Amino acid sequence: MDKVLNNLRSIQTRCDCGIGENRRLSYQSAHEIYLLAGEVAGQLQLQLPAIQEPPRGGFQPEDYAPLVCAEAEGLIRLIRQYEEQLGKLPFLRTGAVTEEVGKLTKQLDNIRSAMSEVMRLCPENSDVNSSQMHSETRETTASNQSAASMKVAVKLMHWLQGRGYPRKDKEFDRLPDFLDLHDLGEALLCELNSMVVDFDLTLDGTILQNENTKQVLKRLKGEGSRGVCIFLVLKGDQLVSIPADKATKILVCIDGNIGSRKSDFMKKLLEINEKSGHQQVRVIREPLKELESDLTEFWNAVEAGEDASDEQRAQSSRFEETMFDHHYQVATNPDLRRTHLISERSMEAKVHVFNELTFKKGKLLKESRDEMQRKFHVNIRGQKCYQPHAVVFFEISVQKAHERIKERNRPGEEYITQDYLTDIEAKYAALYPPSAANVIRLDSDQPMEDLLVAVQSELPKLLKKQQCASDEEIDSFTQFFQDVRSEPSN
């Protein structure tokens, strides 16, 4: 709360300079107070309404100074009284403070409305008529107006436990456009391991868009502002970023087409885990054995093609939802992520490969597909701690994969065609292009022990390059993939 109180005292300081003979609030000082009030609202996580202009009853700019000063003093008293509760996230606030939030919002809105009126009354290029204006006040000079550069700070509006309100600064050698600011916002969220599909950038209560960004910044530039603080407001379900100190353990996914020998490799890893009793690594297979009857129904729906009934489409959608939930838990469940994980198939493949193909074939209901996509993009995409640190991709030709599927003769898989495997191959090629930095590609048509040796050789280099854990922890983890063949006897 110290920053909140300091901002309110800064408001009072600027107002004090507007009280008394031969002193008045300038456009510049009013604009700064307006911004400070907005920042206080952001720090307290209060949503301010659109600006409502106060009644125009012949007030002069200096008449607003004592009123705003009194509002700031009232805010300080309320915040000190409810400091502990206000420091919590909005949905955790309880008791009397919930009744006072309306007062806080109203007082901040009053301050902003008053300063909006002062800016209307004052010429935009008016000089500050007081030598006692606060040292932080930016001076409006001809050189500032003609300078081309602008400093921009994008500030996360939501409280991040243990890290306050993170921000990212950048100085542009020109007036930035909306895409520049949006990229800066994405960079901030990436640094926080929290990237969402949609967010708003707000400045002076205005939501910035392609159409208005340059206009808003030009106006501020003309007022002498060489820098702005823009608030980033997250949208969707995830309202608070995940602190970096909550980073999870290593996640490696074993991926590839159907019939690429992933299952054999996962079985080998389970054997190793059972024999070694390794406590720091957990091997997780897809729950296909437990869902065998559901999987059979899924393949029956695929075989039915356009003749599939509504019930079959609903069943196949439920199967895909169950598999999605499995991969979602692998990625996000804190109990699972306390240890290093080796998981069969990645969540990215579930969403971008199999969901999309099932939807294309008409066996995944649109509402199911859309909900899974929304959940993935809002809560997973861009979250480095939830995405695989490495993907071991088993490469195999479509023809060879189809032969292996026939040989293993699993229920329902007789409906898998080479065309379907070719579609999967194409989707994987788009998901994991040759430039993908976290993918290890292996020819799966070789002994399991040779695959283990290849993984143990390549995986440490990839993980250390990403700096996802200490070198010692990575070396310890990758020892899990050691060659378990007996030494040849002499």
TrEMBL record:
It comes from the Eukaryota. Residues 125-145 are annotated as: Disordered. It holds the Pfam family dNK. Residues 252-446 form the Deoxynucleoside kinase domain. Gene3D superfamilies: P-loop containing nucleotide triphosphate hydrolases (3.40.50.300). InterPro entries: Deoxyribonucleoside_kinase, DNK_dom, P-loop_NTPase. Residues 126-145 have a biased composition (Polar residues). This is Mitochondrial (Mt-TK).
